[in-house]
Specification:
alpha/beta, globular, 290 residues, single chain, 6-stranded parallel sheet, 12 helices
């Protein structure tokens, strides 16, 4: 009898101890255009400060100047690295993807069957495209204004540059749909034969967190970070009125109907400050990285 009671007590203690230990899921960070792992030192510190012992990995594929490589090439390379990491963590991982990296992560999630990504955080990403004269644009096309970029981007030569793969000129919609080989394909607006499978892959995530704000200064319109975008008169059409949402082309409406989308808006944050702003981390990211 004493032996049975002792065994029961030991079992209860072990169960209680197990309940007190919370293992946070690993976080994989994907960088944006013209940056790399070193830019995410602060963000890594924020995560490990509030969630001690969390493994945080920033992938160094196509960083800095190499980040202008075609998006599909980057998606393939990042997918290979992310898949290797996921195999080590069968209980799941989180993806935290900044700027252009948010679109790379969308490509990874859509084309990777059986992934185990729990939360996908898109941090100031041009998710519905980019159309604006910014410092980043001038680094690639120093002599062009936004009204001229479609001439460069919407052809085979232009499509070898990453920014052209999500350049979305609202005044040349038909050219965008026909000649942009990345974003319209990813959105299901010019769907590949595997679109149904891609949609199911994307819907494997449990949470989509969209972060952006009006003072970003790079993502244009800034509402693109929340899947909003310009119409032909350059008025912003919000996410739920976009065709890809209403027709649920890649699963966004389904995620929303499940209550699995969180939208976070912060003013006063410039584009290069999102990943080093502790307030943004605490209010927009922390609760989803468990």
């Amino acid at each position: 009898m004493r032996t049975l009671q002792g065994s029961t007590l030991l079992l209860l203690l072990l169960l209680l101890a197990a309940g007190c230990v919370h293992a946070y899921k690993p976080v994989i960070i994907v960088h944006g255009l013209f940056d790399g792992p070193k830019e995410f030192t602060n963000l890594t510190g924020f995560i490990t400060k509030v969630h001690p012992e969390t493994e945080v990995m920033t992938i160094s594929q196509y960083d800095y100047k190499a980040s202008v490589t075609t998006m599909w090439q980057q998606v393939k390379a990042f997918r290979n690295d992310i898949e290797k990491i996921m195999l080590k963590y069968p209980d799941g991982v989180h993806l935290l993807c900044f700027s252009q990296g948010g679109l790379i992560c969308r490509g990874v999630l859509s084309t990777m069957p059986h992934h185990n990504v729990h939360t996908f955080i898109a941090l100031s990403s041009p998710l519905a495209g980019q159309y604006g004269e910014t410092s980043y644009l001038k680094r690639i096309f120093p002599d062009s204004v936004k009204k001229e970029v479609h001439v460069i981007c919407y052809n085979k030569v232009g499509q070898i540059m990453s920014i052209c793969n999500y350049w979305n000129d609202p005044h040349y919609r038909s050219s965008y749909l026909r000649k942009n080989n990345f974003l319209p394909v990813l959105n299901g607006e010019n769907p590949p034969s595997k679109m149904s499978a891609w949609r199911e892959n994307f819907l494997r995530i449990k949470k989509l967190v969209l972060i952006g704000g009006p003072d970003d200064g790079v993502i244009t319109p800034w509402q693109s970070s929340h899947f909003g975008f310009y119409n032909s008169t350059e008025d912003v059409v919000e996410m739920r009125n976009q065709k890809f949402y209403k027709d649920d082309l890649f699963g966004l409406k389904t995620l929303d109907s499940r209550g699995n989308i969180s939208v976070c808006i912060h003013s006063g944050v410039k584009h290069t400050e999102w990943h080093s702003n502790f307030t943004v981390f605490r209010s927009c990211m922390e609760e989803w990285l468990t």
